[in-house]
């Protein structure tokens, strides 16, 4: 983490070592990698969490058999981050976990590669009621640091939704 101080100085912590129980722990050689990312505004306005995710956890590119291999599989617009996308444990859809990395309310639009019924669920992938949307995109609202789970299911609502 870097913090700009008065006069344009930047503070950077590369390693922290504990004093207890062993004051000599962490004194061995180590490597550190850091990136300098300049932006306007605060870290949220500058999209620093998104940039950090892209650097440290780059997306895996897979062939989905789409007509345009350069098209996006999924895109998140706004102040949210797609933390994970996976198959549902019950095999009945695709699970998205989206969160707000900021300390202010965030709105986001999620653009999908196909048409789905979109359900909100919990971390155990249990669906909350009826679909919140049907289509190839949907909008969400997130409180500060909130994580939400969405389940995407093709087909008719009511079919295999349990």
The helix-strand sequence is: EEHEEEEEE
Fraction of residues in helix: under 10%
Which CATH class of the domain at 64-153 applies here?
Mainly Beta
Strand count = 8
CATH domain fold name of the domain at 64-153:
Immunoglobulin-like
**What separation lies between the terminal Cα atoms?**
43 Å
Envelope shape: elongated
Using only C-alpha atoms, the radius of gyration works out to 20 Å
What does this structure look like?
It contains one helix and eight strands. It has one helix at 48-56, and strands spanning 2-4, 10-12, 74-78, 81-87, 94-99, 106-121, 133-142, 147-153. It is elongated and about 60 Å long. β1 (2-4) and β2 form a beta hairpin. It has a domain at 64-153: Sandwich (Immunoglobulin-like). The chain has 162 residues and is mostly beta strands. The strands form two sheets. Strands 3, 4, 5, 6, 7 and 8 form a six-stranded antiparallel sheet that branches. The mean pLDDT is 82.
Descriptive labels:
about 160 residues; 6-stranded antiparallel β-sheet; Immunoglobulin-like; two-stranded antiparallel sheet; mainly beta
